[in-house]
Amino acid sequence: MNGLSGKARERLLYLISPIALLVVWQILLMLGIGDRRFIPAPSDIAVRFVKLIANGELALHVGVTLYRVALGFIVGVVPAVAMGLLMAMFKPVRIFFDPLIAVLFPIPKIALMPLLLLAFGFGDASKVALVAIAVFFPVIVNTYVGAANIEKIYWDVAKNYGASQMVMFTRIVFFGALPTIFAGLRIALAVSFIVLVASEFVATKAGIGYLIWNSWELLQVDVMFVGIVTIGLIGLVTSALFQEIERWAIPWKAT
Amino acid sequence: MNKAVERRGAAIEIAGLRKEYLSGQGRVLALDDVSLRISPGEFVCIVGPSGCGKSTLLRILAGLDTQSSGAMKIEAPGWAVENAMVFQESGLFPWMNVQTNVGFGLMTRGVPKAEAAARVEAALKLVGLTKFRKHYPHQLSGGMRQRSAIARAFVTDPGMLLMDEPFAALDAQNRVILQAELVRIWEQTRKTVVYITHSIDEALLLGDRTVVMTAQPGRIKQVIDVPFPHPRDVLALSASAEFGRLKLEIWRVLEDEVNRARAEEEQ
Question: Which residues of chain A does B137 touch, with a Cβ-Cβ cutoff of 8 Å?
């Protein structure tokens, strides 16, 4: 390991605990402690994982889930950001929406699923709507807080230099709130996977949530684990991707 | 250059200006019966103890605040932009690079892109920041940030410049350099400038007149003419005997007020 930089070495050290967990898990099952029909060994899961990739089944479910998350994310985030900024800029808007947010935010969004099935049917629309609603709240709250905390001097400068409300919105308040908006987006990303996978347990024939629930009903525990591992990996990759986007979008944040 | 000198800037007439505001403890009288005339192209410095309402006066001139009573008339015929303010802590937008920051007041007023770019270029040259156009404020030193803020104000070609202790946060060397630069730029443009400072030295080096204000409530205690001719050599001037004499004179006027402000704070 001498050729590695300190940082790379530290990253490798992070792998110790997950690998140790898998090894212990594997050994215990190979020693016959635990029933392999109900608790598959890591090797069983890996074999199933490769099979599901080879026959294209996993790609299908991943694709459907990502599509729903992406669409729901956009549908929820865009109005949330716009309204959050308007709340910070105009008091009447804030007075109108504040109580609504206070009442609706704490409702577990998954509780809305039956209602959304009724409204949007069994297709993708109900899932997309659920994700959109779930991401809307953390994003609008973070956007508002970010915009409301923009230092007064920037409002003064903008006003003194002749900024219209439109310029204020697009050049000052939006960018001033952007770091906090990103904090909201990260929360929203996690929330969107939680509600979507849960919603895919019912009333759908595709998606990672469906894969997990369906294999539970068929008692294909190894497939179930493949689903769980997959959603974990997707979470890992998307949040890393997000970090890159953030670094690109906020170049003025000293790192 | 001569043409710019002839053009001069806005004329300001303030009569009986009064500003009251509500704070936690009740009503606070920030400005009381402030009357002042400033001619086009004049560089006026306002000194006073902290909390004397000099920043409030500037904010009212900038249109960021309104007086409780009294009259204020600003005549800026032929000036597209009435005023531009330079703030104490630059107020550069952290999310814009230097050239976007400098061009902000042109963008908001719909100046065509090509013209705006040329004017920004000239302004950056004026303050020596051409090489740093793509830098973000956090990548600049305090002095460079204030230079950018000055460029942002000058680029809009305002009738008057309002400056609120723009160099107060800088170290001594940078302050001297920027003061000299400001004098040089002003001598080229001869705009009306209202400059707030708590430093008598600065007021004498930069301005044509020094207005001394009283501690709260802010009133005008005395107006002192600064006789130094232009072009000025800031460093040589600060070493002259006349400078020392005037500094002492103003300090005598200001001293009581500073002591009074301190006594009130200690109560």
Answer: 252
Query: B74 near B12, Cβ under 8 Å?
Result: yes
Which of B152, B57, B58, B47 minimizes the C-alpha distance to B98? B152
CB A161 to CB B63 under 8 A?
no
Give the homologous superfamily in CATH for domain A42-249. Answer: MetI-like (1.10.3720.10)
| A contacts of B63 (beta carbons < 8 Å) | 159-160
Stated pTM of the model: 0.85
Identify the contact set of chain B against chain A, taking CB-CB distances under 8 A: 62-64, 81, 83-85, 87, 89, 91, 93-96, 104-105, 107-109, 136-138, 152, 156
Residue A43 φ/ψ, nearest 5 degrees: -65, -40
Residues (pLDDT < 70) of chain B are: 1-7, 267
Low-confidence ranges of chain A (pLDDT < 50): 1
Helix, strand, or coil (residue B180): helix
Give the nearest partner residue to A164 out of B63, B93, B108, using CB atoms: B108
Helical axes A57-89 vs A174-199, angle rounded to 10°:
140
**What does the pLDDT look like over B201-259, one tens digit per residue?**
999 999 999 999 988 888 899 999 998 988 888 888 988 999 999 999 999 888 888 88
ipTM: 0.89
Distance from CA of B61 to the nearest CA of A (A): 11
Q: Where are the domains of chain A?
A: 1-34, 42-249
Please name each of the domains of chain B with its CATH number: 2-79+161-266 (3.40.50.300), 87-156 (no CATH)
